[in-house]
Queue: 3 jobs
Job 1
Amino acid sequence: MTIADIRTQAEAKMNQSITAFQNNLSKIRTGRANPALLDSIHVEYYGSQVPLSQVANVALIDARTISVQPWEKGMGAKIEKAIRESDLGLNPASMGDLIRVPMPPMSEERRKEMTKLARNEGENAKIATRNLRRDANEAVKKLVKEKLASEDDQKRAEAEVQKITDRFIAEIDKMVAAKEAEIMAV
């Protein structure tokens, strides 16, 4: 493995951690409805727990309402129960086959909790990025120890990995700030 391989691998893994962070951010509730909010809900389906998206169509009716359309007739009550029992604080209402999930307005206190949650997710993503930086630097040191690279190469590689890390951490900070602004917008 060369220094270029280590750098490329570290950058690819940092991209993966950013993608995972974006996914986690999308699940944090804002004032608007978002179908991704229901991704974490599992429903009992013929004896096993399956994600809601595998037993129903989840879509937006308007900015404050999510619709859940079960694919089978008997699933409506189970889906409604699963949404109600989730820790999202949602109260679904059945209208025939369609289940409407209105988003209650968030209180100031709840908005602050959500911003804390977003910051915490951001900090976890930064920690993952820094761990990847450390792993890359250790791999470079191992190459130097095995005399496959010079100490000058090590210094250059560590500086490049640090630049990549700084770029990803700045991107995480931007994403957290945007999410906080979205949460605090009334």
Note: The radius of gyration is 22 Å.
Job 2
Amino acid sequence: MKEKLNWFFIIGLAALALVRPLMSMLGWLESIGQPTASISVTIVITLTWIAIAVLGRVDEPLINLTFTGVTYGVFAIVISAILSPILEGQLKGPITNPFAIVSVLVTNGIWGLCAGLIATVIQNKLKI
């Protein structure tokens, strides 16, 4: 499996997804209106992941996008741990609760898995 993982792809798309927490930290999601803004941004990110996987003809999009979701979860946890003391004066977020860490990683892994499944189906239908 190691040779099937495209780490450039995984890290790049996981970093791209950081637009969502960035928009939240800047208050843009709240000003647009919740929960519509969060859902809309998540859909756009998911469609972008799928499009890049399909158009880029990524090998094994299911595995690569699952790892993208988990990597995004790691990025989000680390960024929260770094920025919460700066922005809020104390450590907050998933890093303070082991169950929350697992939840973030599993949830984002499932997100990536679903996107990967869709990308795989599209690649198979288009014979890419």
Note: Residues 2-126 form one domain.
Job 3
Amino acid sequence: MSTLHMISLPLDLRCFRQWAAMRRLAGDEGRALHHLLTETFGKGAIRPFRLMVARGARTATLYGYTGRDRDSLHRTAQETGAPEALAVVDPARLADKAMPTSWREGRRLAFDVRVRPVRRLRKPAGVFPKGAEVDAFLTAVLRHSPQGRPETAERLAREAVYRGWLAERLEGAARLDGARMVRFQRTRAERGQALEGPDATFHGELTVTDSAAFSRLLAAGVGRHAAYGYGMLLLRPAGG
């Protein structure tokens, strides 16, 4: 496996939104960023990624994982990037660092991750056909009550369901020691068709259980829609 790099890239939000509007991508920020990064640095070059925006800020910082170093990304952008895209993502301001090539098993880390907790149905359920992408909370309700009784939803805690979903996605690479949902909303995503679904941010702590698997998890992202701004594990030292 090649060395994984973490990049950071400042974005001017006004320029980005103008670019997205010009491309008719303003309705889905994740899709707009996906196209912007693809056109500038190549398909799948920076994935997963996360756009961090402070309240009321005019600029934001995009963080991402990539198998390429700064020089390679900068060269691609200069050779093939469109001028209007480079006005939004100035490659000269891109910074990177090499991630560890191995992780000590038993290493405890804190994390921040934005996820889209959905499941693909293996068989029809209620009004949903086989293969539909459905909110993990709703699938839990349907599993406990195929008739979808309202009282079943009341008994199930959305945060607990999503926490279980997150633990499943980490399994084999890390153990989830604890996590709390700090943000939740429902958003629409344009993926050929409009998909409305959950958008949740968790802060928590984990313990690495398999070094190679954990490196693969960082590179692949947690859950679906990793190419659209979800699933990037931002790491920091664990408390205590």
Note: The CA atoms of residues 4 and 100 lie 8 Å apart.
